[in-house]
Amino acid sequence: MKPLLETARLELWQPRPTDLADLFKLTLDEETRHFLGTFTPTPMDAFNRLLRNAGSWALYGYGTFAVRIKGTQRIIATCGVFRSHRGFGEGQGMDNVPEAGWIVHMDHWGQGLAREAMEAALAWFDQTHGHQRIACMIEEGHAASDALARKLGFATYGRHEPEEGATLVLYERLA
């Protein structure tokens, strides 16, 4: 097997069953999870994320990539465009559209890897699936992800304030 995409420093792979252990380890660190909601990672959670991501690839032809440093096996991030159903309600614009997202292990923060991976993933998505609206959501106060979203061409269009948990800022990149 080979990665679907390569950048100067990274390999972007479609999901595979052998990713499970690394996906679990990716979110074990509390600092990495700081802006990812209130979940406690479990092997079942990692398995469900793997299946959800593989399902996005199977049903829609795109999904989140497992990101590795070139020539290594460890997953250091997940980045890409995927299909999800957030259920935020009418007018929130997060359901039935492609959604962008990225998680980078804290050991690799501040190196521009999320931007490098997301630029490659978005270029591939646009070329393969055509330019279309892509949404994303970022927990309020996550300055690094907000800055990255803006660099990638996303603009704020709303907010979602759940009954429990942090407020989410909603972004979109228009076609």
Describe the structure in your own words.
The longest helix is centred in the first third of the chain and has 18 residues, at 43-60. A hairpin with a 3-residue loop joins strand 1 and strand 2. The chain has 5 helices and 8 strands. The chain has helices at 20-26, 30-33, 43-60, 113-129, 143-151; strands at residues 5-6, 10-13, 64-69, 75-83, 98-104, 134-139, 155-160, 168-173. The mean pLDDT is 88. The chain has one domain: Aminopeptidase (3-Layer(aba) Sandwich), CATH 3.40.630.30. The radius of gyration is 15 Å and the shape is globular. The termini are far apart. It has a 5-stranded antiparallel sheet, sandwiched between helices. By secondary structure, the protein is α+β, with helices and mostly antiparallel strands.
Largest β-sheet summary: 5 strands, antiparallel
| Mean of residue pLDDT values | 88
For the largest sheet, list the strands in their spatial order.
Answer: 1-2-3-4-5
Supply the helix-strand structural class: alpha+beta
Question: What's a concise summary of this model?
Answer:
By secondary structure, the protein is an alpha+beta fold. The protein contains five helices and eight strands. It is globular and about 40 Å long.
Notable characteristics:
175 residues; five-stranded antiparallel sheet
